[in-house]
Amino acid sequence: MNKTKTMPHLWKWQLLAVLPALLAAPNGMFVKIVTDDVSAVWLNVLRFFVSALIVLPFVIMARRRFTKKNLKYAVFSGLAYGVAVLSYTQAISLSQASYVSVINLGIPIFLMVYSVYFTKERVSRRALLGISFAALGSFIVVAAPLLFSGGVTSTFHPLATILALVNCAFFPLSVIMTKKANEEGLPISASFGVSSTIIFLLSLFVALVTGIAPPVEVFMNNPVLLLPVLYSAILVYVVAKSITVASYRYIGSVAVGALQYLESFLSIILPIIILGERMTLEMLIGGLLILVGVIVSELKLFPNRKRPEMEAL
To answer: Which of 23, 148, 244, 248 is the most exposed place for a label (fewest CB within 10 A)?
Structure first.
């Protein structure tokens, strides 16, 4: 494909890739609202049950396209994301959200390393420079208050650290495995159907083993709490992650990683806008560095890059 046809297509994916960051940014606030009254384990059960139901029709329509190879990748994706979700929620419960956020800055790095190893992606110096700017900006935003207040030492939790690192390692794997299933002919929606079912079963198993009572009465008394669950299940997991996997095939791991940092920054900025919290200097500096990193990593021309073939969503 010539350059004039490839570049507009690439620009569309670059712009579309920003949408998952916008959709996922308020997810933390919504999850916080629910987990004040509902166990995080049951939240996972509910949202992935909803996700599985949403994509079930796509799984049925794609049933003839399942092969041993793409089903294997879809199952691996579900297992990886299930481990990531369970580890992340447990890490939060054992420590602080800000503490886990610092460790989560490693997610894009894992994604880049996995991409080089599993998909043989070549990373340019300019792309590395871009993600370095974004990583530095995110670190300033999240870690500076902890460092200056001496909070890092006081909030250190060994088990929470291990679980957060597990999340960092397994979440990018789920993205890559979904991509590989798609490359083997399985639509992303069908792959998500398999993954959602696996995560639902894993979460349900944990809920039953731990003996935590189902939050039926909580939702009956306050049905509005179902709205954040639906948002997380549909817009964050199904829609945002689908776009992330699809755009990852076109713009690469570094640009997706930079947008992951943008999502982290937006998740901090939203409470300032909505709740009237104060903007600090480190937030301003970090945000500017993140934006610079996103621009540097995304404004790349690939005149000789072959357009990947992708199955329908």
So the answer is: 148
